[in-house]
């Protein structure tokens, strides 16, 4: 008998992909990370492309950056840019990249992407700039609706991120959102309802538990 969880993931992903298509976004389902890497390279396309990325434990922990470089693409490594002048150069490269990679904090059953960001240097390129955007997310990010998505981000994604980033916030200590302002990384809440440029945003859903 097939793994019931995997079957449920595939069925759920198929329904979400239909909703994504209606929102002018492309959706794909991959059973595991290996298949997702292959799909990512397929979506980036042939020839040498410039590829930027936003902060994502899903991407960092599962070898997606290495897959991009091993395929011969130019990965814009933002951590290499330090001075104000270099950071300005990096921003210019990112907004003009052929492809931008990120995950999503949550995705609804109706195909909406939910992200909470600090400076907005991740969500800004989701909304505008690079010719192609690829969102990579485990099925653990799926939620019923936008309210559940925001709740998920605040209770499951933000607290460990605040611990990782050494932020002095209540949620880093208690795991519970306190609607704080000082030191908060929850500055921008972005709900992506559709892609204004048809099929610019591609979403790879993976049948595993990944990231925060």
Describe the fold and architecture.
- This protein has helices at 4-22, 33-44, 57-61, 64-70, 84-95, 123-127, 146-164, 170-174, and strands at residues 26-30, 50-53, 74-75, 99-102, 106-108, 113-117, 132-138, 142-143, 188-192, 201-206.
- It has 212 residues and is α/β, with parallel strands linked by helices.
- The model has no long low-confidence stretch (mean pLDDT 96).
Please describe the structure with a list of short key phrases separated by commas or semicolons.
four-stranded mixed sheet; 212 residues; six-stranded parallel sheet; 8 helices; globular; single chain; alpha/beta
Mean pLDDT metric: 96
- The computed structural class is alpha/beta
Q: End-to-end span in angstroms? A: 30 Å
Order of helices and strands: HEHEHHEHEEEHEEHHEE
Helix content: 25-40%
* Portion in strands: 15-25%
Task: Label the overall shape.
Answer: globular
Count of alpha/pi helices: 8
User: Care to count the β-strands?
Assistant: 10
Q: Low-confidence stretches at least 5 residues in length (pLDDT < 50)?
A: none
How would a textbook summarize the main sheet? 6 strands, parallel
Whole-angstrom Rg = 17 Å
Side-by-side strand order of the widest sheet: 1-10-7-4-2-3
């Amino acid at each position: 008998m097939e793994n019931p969880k995997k079957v449920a993931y595939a069925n759920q992903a198929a329904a979400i992909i239909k909703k994504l298509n209606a929102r002018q976004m492309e959706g794909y389902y991959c059973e595991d990370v290996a298949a997702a890497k292959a799909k990512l390279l397929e979506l980036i396309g042939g020839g040498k492309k410039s590829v930027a990325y936003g902060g994502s434990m899903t991407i960092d922990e599962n070898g997606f950056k290495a897959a991009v470089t091993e395929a011969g693409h130019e990965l814009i490594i933002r951590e290499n840019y330090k001075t104000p002048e270099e950071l300005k150069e990096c921003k210019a490269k990112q907004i003009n990249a052929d492809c931008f990679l990120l995950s999503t904090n949550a995705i609804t059953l109706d195909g909406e992407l939910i992200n909470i960001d600090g400076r907005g240097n991740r969500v800004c390129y989701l909304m505008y700039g690079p010719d192609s955007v690829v969102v990579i997310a485990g099925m653990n990010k799926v939620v019923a609706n936008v309210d559940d998505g925001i709740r998920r981000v605040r209770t499951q994604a933000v607290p460990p991120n605040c611990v990782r980033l050494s932020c002095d916030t209540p949620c880093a200590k208690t795991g519970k959102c306190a609607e704080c302002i000082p030191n908060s990384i929850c500055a921008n809440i972005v709900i992506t309802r559709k892609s204004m440029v048809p099929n610019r945003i591609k979403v790879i859903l993976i049948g595993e538990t990944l990231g925060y």
